[in-house]
Amino acid sequence: MIELRTPTQIEQMRPAGRFVASVISALAEKAAVGVNLLELDELAHRMIKDAGAESCYIDYHPSFGASPFGKVLCTSVNDAVLHGLPHDYTLADGDLLSVDFAASIDGWVSDSALSVTVGTPDPKDQRLIDTAQQALDAGIAQARGGNRLGDISAAIGDVARAADLSVNLQFGGHGVGRTMHGEPHVPNDGRAGRGLKLKPGLVIAIEPWFLHTTDEIVFDPDGWTIRSADGSRGAHVEHTIAITDGDPIVLTARG
Which helix (H) or strand (E) holds 226? Predict the structure, then answer.
């Protein structure tokens, strides 16, 4: 069921958005050569505890997961792009790291993701990250009352195609509110002018993710970590936004 939030409820969602943004920023700053993924998860865990927030991930167990997630953060490295389960891996020079984090405060959820290069950046990786960010910005620009869901999807897909990237449609954005994943699904490609009419009060996560040379994915045995089928690297970015009659409100805006 698609739910619309009142202006008062959207204001109540702002603390969760600010908190998620602060965690994502802290993780990006912490990520460096020699840092273990479990250290990043522990940092997010401490920040959750200090803020009196609740993790959306630790007990999360959808049908595709082999078990409850068990961590509070997704860390996807290099050819992993989504749902990376933090494990004993130390970041190396040149790694491409994507972090995805969702938490709730006072019962309201926000969700955000960011990709960064570690140490010496590979220009190809940075271009991929930049393209994903451009796609996110393009999608957000279309998230206005009166537009259609397909306008968001088409804007994302247009950026991908301009960069000669293919788009996987199995995973994308989603509704956000009292839970992390709700309706509607927000594909990363589509047709402008089609789909759900966007109304003020709709809160969604928009999350482009692209792979260098494929749109095919495979799952690790853990049932969570999603990798490119050909070993190419991926980038993933995401914001939670609220649709209004005018400009969208980016609840997870950083800095």
Answer: strand 226-228
